[in-house]
User: What shape does this take?
Amino acid sequence: MLTQHTVHSTLRQSGFTLIEVLLALGLTAMLLGLLSTGVYVVTQDWNRNSDQLDQSLDEALALLQLDRALHGAFPHGYTDPENLSRYIYFIGEDDYLSWVSTVSPQRTPGLMTWELFSDEDGVHLVLAPAFSDYPGDRLVEATSRLILPNYEASFSYLYEEADESRQWREEWYADEALSLPLAVYVKFTPIDDEGGTVEALELLARITNNEHRNLRPNSLQTRL
Assistant: This one.
């Protein structure tokens, strides 16, 4: 037969003491804190990796568009209204490039004038339709778009000497050469990358359609 003392002893042994409850709450709070810290770290890593992936995809897409546009470079002829002479449009410098291409990222019909240049923010692209007049006039009215932030672009142009040897030069003006270069090399160098953690981007595009049907360079113009 259970006495009253035995019943009270059994009840005390089956419950939790205040210290045990406090320890349990403390452990639970510590585990929740560790769990929340781990989730935060994982989330930050995920966001950082996602941002890097998005940036890499944007850079790859920009390079792909530029590569297609340079491959589709067209020896667009126009007439100078002052002297009524015919010229080919292509302006290539070591830090600036503008050309006419059969490729349009906007999928609009007709030829498109492309312009690339750099400033302190990065590499900018300007697009404008190319008609029978001088294509550069519409570039002034068009809006530039930042396609490669924190990069600067430099350009080189491949041409063929009279002895059929090929050389690279830092300038190419089609109004003088009456033709386009054989290829264009573009290097996108990171801006303010003191640690050297960001790799440079490179693009080498061969131009197959580099001569106009009617405007042909002479030997002197070819050698430049």
Confidence is low (pLDDT under 50) at residues 49-54, 219-224. The two ends are 119 Å apart (CA to CA). The chain has five helices and twelve strands.
